[in-house]
Design brief:
Strand content: 15-25%
Bound molecules: guanosine-5'-diphosphate, 6-O-phosphoryl inosine monophosphate, magnesium ion
Number of domains: 3
Structural class: alpha/beta
CATH class of the largest domain: Alpha Beta
CATH topology of the largest domain: Adenylosuccinate Synthetase, Chain A, domain 3
Helix content: 25-40%
């Protein structure tokens, strides 16, 4: 198979950035197809650490990066990120980055609405990144969004802003938040236009040509299956589809072009933001995982909630996400723990389930059913071959494969790019 799609199999931050960067050496083009700068992907290459939110992780390898039409693009965030990574020595030019002309723009009013709504929800808040992702996708399906191509048409921008402000200012006023003024928004967009437009093109055409020339495409997912707006723990989800099928619609290729679907999962589990998390740990082990795994949000800086690996959840992600192989990351964080628990199902009001039911109350009430596995005393940190792993760590990986019904095709044993064990090359599948 020529192409590979990488998606998260839990609630995000599984190490997609590291895996995409590693796989990018085998690819020609890296494509983002959904989400926006709510994503935070950390790549460690020698002494350098790159933190990417909107830019495809392949840029670090000097590969062509494409931002597909399914992505919501905040032009201010985009330009700031380009400046930031340029200062780290990366080349980001219209030769190395292309942005779909039909991608949706995030404006300051989207972030303002996102934050005002979260504040109004109080205890019920979703814990969004506050970056306007949800409101921007709402505008897209409501057919009032401003797109990248509109930056080339000042009259279109002016018309669309009237429509947008009618909607948003009404809502913002109702929420007691500051409203926006058309002229200031228009002036700023016209100021940004000449910096953004050189990157814009119909990326579907480039991807079609690349495919016909036998180029390898790596689709880089953001967020994860359990944050998918359909398949995740709704309403505690993001506002896009994060499953691999979205790679096609979100970049303008057919479903057959997506190729091998690689799901990324941590050897334990984390979540930022609110919502159900059956295997969450509130004890010292949870704190230990958080400290060892440096579980702080790249975007929010918030401490991530930590818990045991939930095989029932990942099995579900494998099924709905179309995951054919799993990359298991952060195995090293479990080093030295005498005993490990793995969630294999749920108990809800006297009934047992092998999957997480869809109802909000059922999800909140789900108690994990655990299987206990023996830990290992040796170190997996930095291992680059199976031979370097303690026997019990291999057993843990094997048991996970059985439970989630997918083979582990890649293992990651530290944040560093090359501390990776390849079991099966997804591009050769
Ligand atoms: P993403 O959003 O899925 O790209 O993941 P993030 O970058 O937000 O979070 C993953 C964090 O774990 C980053 O800080 C990575 O550097 C780090 N990381 C990735 N793989 C490993 C690993 O195998 N072991 C350890 N200890 N850290 C890892
Ligand atoms: P990466 O790509 C983890 C979470 C937020 C919140 C919910 C909705 O780094 O894995 P949003 O701002 O998208 O409307 O917030 O989704 N969330 C993430 N959690 N990793 C991410 O991205 C996330 N992107 C959004 O915390 O719970
Ligand atoms: Mg992240």
């Amino acid at each position: 198979m020529a192409n590979v799609a990488v998606i998260g199999a839990q609630w995000g931050d599984e190490g997609k950035g590291k895996v995409v960067d590693w796989l990018a050496s085998r690819a020609d083009i890296v494509v983002r197809f959904q989400g926006g700068h709510n994503a935070g992907h950390t790549l460690v290459v020698g002494e350098q650490t790159y933190k990417l939110s909107l830019l495809p992780s392949g840029l670090v390898r000097g590969k062509l990066g494409v931002i597909g039409n399914g992505v919501v693009v905040d032009p201010e965030a985009l330009l700031a990120e380009i400046d930031r990574v340029r200062a780290q020595g990366l080349q980001v030019t219209p030769e190395t980055l292309r942005i779909a002309e039909n991608a949706i723009l995030i404006l300051p009013l989207h972030g303002a609405l996102d934050r005002a709504r979260e504040a109004a929800r109080g205890e019920q808040k979703i814990g969004t990144t506050g970056r306007g992702i949800g409101p921007a996708y709402e505008d897209k399906v409501a057919r009032r969004a401003i797109r990248v191509c509109d930056l080339a048409e000042p009259e279109t921008l002016a018309e669309k802003l009237d429509d947008l402000l009618l909607h948003h200012n009404t809502l913002l006023k109702g929420l007691g938040a500051d409203t926006f003024e058309k002229q200031a928004l228009l002036d700023r967009l016209l100021e940004l236009a000449p910096r953004v437009l050189p990157f814009a093109e119909p990326v579907w055409e480039r991807l079609d040509e690349a495919r016909r020339a036998g180029r390898r495409i790596l689709f880089e997912g953001a967020q994860a299956v359990m944050l998918d707006v359909d398949h995740g723990t709704y309403p505690y989800v993001t506002s896009s589809n994060t499953v691999a099928a979205t790679a096609a619609a979100g970049s303008g290729v057919g479903p057959a072009a997506v190729g091998f679907v690689l799901g990324i999962a941590k050897a334990y589990c984390t979540r930022v933001g609110a919502g159900p998390f059956p295997t969450e740990l509130h004890d010292g082990v949870g704190t230990l995982l958080g400290d060892r795994g440096h579980e702080f949000g790249t975007v929010t800086g918030r401490r991530r909630r930590c818990g045991w690996f939930d095989a029932a959840l990942v099995r579900q992600a494998v099924k709905v996400g179309g995951i054919q192989g799993l990359a298991l990351t952060k195995l090293d964080v479990l080093d030295g723990l005498a005993e490990l628990q793995v969630g294999v199902g749920y108990r809800i009001g006297g009934e047992t389930f092998r999957r997480l039911p869809a109802g909000m109350r059922a999800q909140a009430a789900a108690e994990p059913i655990y299987e206990t596995l023996e830990g290992w005393s040796g170190s997996t940190r930095g291992a680059r071959s199976w031979a370097d792993l303690p026997a019990q760590a291999i057993k843990y990986v094997r048991r996970i494969e059985e439970l989630v019904e997918a083979p582990v095709t890649l293992l990651s044993t530290s944040p560093e790019r090359d501390d990776t064990i390849l079991v099966r090359d997804p591009f050769e599948d």
